[in-house]
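Annex B.
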Amino acid sequence: MAQGRARAALKAGRPPLRSPGRAPVNRRAERQQFWQLIAKGLSSEEAAVAAGVSMPLGPRWFREGGGMPPITLEEPSGRYLSFAEREEIALLRAREWGVREIARRLGRAPSTISRELRRNAATRGGRLDYRASVAQWHADRQARRPKPCKLVEHDQLRQYVQERLAGAVTASDGRAAPGPATRWKGRRHGPRQDRRWATAWSPEQIARRLPIDFPEDETMRISHEAIYQSLYVQGRGGLKRELTACLRTGRALRVPRARTQGRGKNFVTEEVLISRRPAEANDRAVPGHWEGDLIIGLNRSAIGTLVERTTRYAMLLHLPPMEGHGEPRVKNGPALAGHGAQAVRDAIADTITDLPEHLRRSLTWDQGAEMAQHAQLRIDTGLQIYFADPHSPWQRGTNENTNGLLRQYFPKGTDLSRHTRGDLNAVAAALNSRPRKTLGWRTPAEVFNEQLLLIQQDGVVATTG
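IS30 family transposase: predicted structure tokens.
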């Protein structure tokens, strides 16, 4: 019996190997078509049916891949044979073409074809039966590396990533601001629900900050894609999947991009439109130009946001309900929800007048009724007020982006009036301490403090001169 297997192995052209078992159903072509359809915006079930596999198989493939196609399905570089070339080899071999003829047909070296027929052929029964699906399975199995995730092996790096991703939000006095109690359900948070509070650096911010914090330690390096894969891909390891709740989107799986795809107010005159804003505010060269807006919550609660265009430094306005809110409103009386024109004017004035004059040049807002008293605000603070065009949020892009980040802490449909001024300051500090790509991976707080120091130095020079 043993002699028979030895003769069969000798005939096959390679030493006897322990059989890895029957080649599983690869479905490589179906998987590739499935992920192509996913990229076009189809649901997992629709893509599975269109690819020719059962409907329940689609969501399973999507979950296993973390919402992104496995790298093993990508077409190899020209150095390696592709599945299409292996199919061509199988067809030509069945026609009894020689190795050199097949090599000329494919534009490959004869040694490549000979090695492929010897290494990746099915050798059951001692014969070199070449089939493309079995050959591709052999090639994928041999190319698989038992390389563990870097976050599994490197404890310090894993701790650094976890602290920046899921660290606690702290107030100015160092105490933790835990935020509302939440529970991770293994899927994305529902709409209009509380979300977990955390420092919530994005994977790219973490990866780009590592060379700044550890310039001499080359082991403290990781790509943002590796962090995403540790969170999303099943079996990748390194980070717990519940940490996806700390991502800005809160998604437990990646979502393909294809799936995600007024009238002015009478107090807004031609003189205060954004077209009249000075050019220095448009190119962000001079600090002191701000953008503002409100984020609205349940029961007409609101929080005001101010963002400096050059440094991306954010300040939050505490807008608690006024006395008498919730009671029958007096006809033509003032707004009592906390974000009426008078309340917003006073909140902006109290917040921004603490800044030096050079850092409060202008403020751009949308045409909301809360800015009806902008003329008085300009008198009180010296700020030049400008209004964006109706239905043009991109004209206040810095503020819109910041509001999107703040929704991680203040989701839609939640009561924002329960948050104290200390809570708002803690969230603003967390946001201002995140490194930003547009700032060269420095934080808004660092850049803003640099501007304050420059103003102080200029004041000292002017005084001594």
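The radius of gyration is 31 Å. DSSP finds 18 helices and five strands in the chain. Further annotation is deferred to the next reporting cycle.
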